[in-house]
Amino acid sequence: MHLFETRVYYEDTDLARIVYYANYLKFIERGRSEWLRDLGLDQAALKREGTAFAVRHLEADYISPARYDDLLSVETRLAGMTPARLTVEQEVKRGGQLLFSAKVTLVCINDAGRPVRLPQALVARVAAT
Questions:
Q1: Is 12 a catalytic residue?
Q2: Which residue, among 88, 78, 93, has the nearest Cα to 126 in the 3D structure?
Q3: What is the mean pLDDT of the chain?
Q4: Is residue 109 within 8 Å of residue 49, measured between CB atoms?
Q5: Matching SUPFAM superfamilies, A to Z (predicted)?
């Protein structure tokens, strides 16, 4: 499991100072990016080589609201991997309390937007964890 912490800022909230629902997707995106970085995968280099990650499918469950100034933990864990897809489960928590959960399926695409296999470097690093 990978852990990424982030704080809720004013810009993340709505008029009621509750996190706007779409911002949870930003939080988990950051968590996935940091997970990949910690695995040693350089997404900028991958893009220069003509490959990028894209969300293929997402299931989300909004359980309880986060509020302005909360310190959140984004947990990311591998749920499955095929040669063409990577599925992760992610949770956003405040002090151990589950606020949001998601299951995200990622694919890789080339510069033309066509699907390609996952990078071998990623497959090897994930398999080693």
A1: no
A2: 78
A3: 94
A4: no
A5: Thioesterase/thiol ester dehydrase-isomerase
Q: Are 19 and 12 in contact (CB under 8 A)?
A: yes
Catalytic residue, from 12, 14, 42, 70: name it: 14
- Size of the chain, expressed as the number of residues it contains: 129
Taking 70 as the pLDDT cut, the residues of the chain under it are none
Q: Is the CB of residue 39 less than 8 Å from the CB of residue 76?
A: no
d(CA 17, CA 15): 5
Give the pair of three-digit tokens for residue 56: 């293929």
Domains of the chain: residue spans and CATH: 2-128 (3.10.129.10)
pLDDT at 86: 94
d(C-alpha 69, C-alpha 123), whole Å: 37
Q: Tell me the three state secondary structure of residue 82.
A: coil
| 3-class DSSP state of 28 | helix
- Joined together, the tokens standing for residue 8 give 């809720």
